[in-house]
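queue> holo job accepted (FE2/S2 (inorganic) cluster)
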Amino acid sequence: MTASPSLFRPYTKLVKIQILGKDFEVPENNTLLRCFQFLQPESVAYGRFCWNEDCQYCRVSFDMGEGSQPRAALACKLMGQDGMRVKEISSEIKYCLRGLNL
Ligand code: FES
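queue> job finished
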């Protein structure tokens, strides 16, 4: 199953991100949680996410490349950006992305 295009904010290209050391391409201009949904549409849709900065089930830590400071964030708030390296993901995200074999 593919995600409905209307779920995503308009985008014209994909950007490269890393999740736990694996490379993926996701739509620019979208939150990281939407980017995860782009990769695993059905399981993320059924995840226990509020999409509203409330439940905290979408916690990640990330950096922007070698030498950059790791930061903690909520994937439903943080925009996915080219070069982003997601280093840690919550157990809920991990469960929803299990199909990616991270
Ligand atoms: S999905 Fe609930 S805080 Fe991000």
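queue> The chain has one domain: 5-100.
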